[in-house]
Design brief:
By secondary structure, the chain is mainly α. It has 8 helices and 7 strands, in the order E-E-H-H-H-H-H-E-E-H-H-E-E-E-H. Strand 5 and strand 6 form a beta hairpin.
């Protein structure tokens, strides 16, 4: 049987496709340096964002911002970046919507991602994808690790809520109520690894870069712990005088104005998520440079 040889237009290299497994050969026309046209990037981003809005995974403003992030990542990081983004969005939406068997009253915005949550989780990846247009190579590494960190945090929160024991503060080791920023559980940490793995695997399969799996899982999980440290040490905390519960926002979900009880008042959960995903993305950028793009 004759082997099929393809020339990479950007690298001027040849690769023997018969040496790769069937999925890689089937995806070959959409991988590596191939990037969708702006029209296709806009169309696909609109399609996925509309589906997310119809499924109540996104608010209307969140869907608008999701389109912008999708276009930036597809144009800057190609199909591999789009695969990582889709894996994050689909997996996180499903895991967040899963009912909590314990029916715990966690203080969160809900299962629909608003504009700020969309920016917090995908904004850093979009910026780094655009930066990748100026310096080709490490962009897909930065996008993958940033989105892997976002997925790790989302999966850790959702799966950790099902823990039979209360989470413990990452810095003090003391038990904290479920849903408290900075609290971690064993099952939640395993969930973080699984979330990062889904994103990293999607990017690795489409790009043909197996190293993305290692980088995505390690940096993504580390990003989740960075998020927890920031949440434990500096994120704003409030107390609802009516419900006698700790919350993360100035107004509790019951509608009562909460009292600031600790942390930096303006450092909310969305800002913490944005900082953690940016740190993970920059780490991925460095790994991409060291790995050779």
């Amino acid at each position: 049987m004759h082997s099929i040889t393809r020339t990479c237009p950007d690298e001027g290299l040849t690769s023997d496709l018969s040496a790769h497994p069937l999925p890689a050969r089937l995806l070959s026309r959409f991988t590596r340096s191939v990037t969708p046209s702006p029209a296709i990037a806009v169309f696909l981003s609109l399609l996925v964002s509309l589906a997310g809005w119809r499924a109540r995974a996104l608010t209307a403003p969140g869907a608008v911002f999701a389109v912008s992030i999708g276009v930036a990542i597809l144009l800057g990081a190609g199909w591999a970046g789009g695969a990582a983004l889709l894996a994050f969005f689909a997996g996180s939406s499903v895991i967040s919507a899963a009912p909590d068997p314990a029916h715990r009253d966690l203080d969160a915005k809900g299962t629909q991602r608003d504009a700020w949550q969309v920016l917090a989780n995908g904004g850093a990846a979009a910026l780094l994808a655009i930066a990748g247009l100026l310096l080709p190579g490490p962009g897909i590494w930065a996008v993958t690790t940033s989105l892997a960190a976002a997925a790790a945090d989302t999966w850790a929160t959702s799966i950790g809520a099902r823990s039979a024991s209360w989470p413990r503060d990452l810095l003090t080791g003391q038990p904290v109520p479920p849903g408290t920023s900075g609290g971690v559980t064993s099952i939640g940490s395993l969930g973080a690894i699984a979330g990062a793995l889904t994103v990293a695997s999607a990017a690795a399969v489409v790009s043909g870069k197996p190293g993305l799996v290692v980088a995505g899982v390690l940096v993504g999980t580390a990003g989740m712990f960075v998020d927890s440290i920031l949440g434990s040490r500096w994120q704003a905390r409030f107390h609802c005088p009516s419900c006698k519960l700790t919350c993360e926002r100035p107004v509790h979900r019951c509608g009562t104005k909460a009292v600031h009880s600790g942390g930096w008042r303006r450092l909310d959960n969305d800002t913490v998520n944005a900082l953690a995903t940016l740190a993970a993305g920059l780490a991925g950028w460095g790994i991409g440079l060291a790995w050779g793009g």
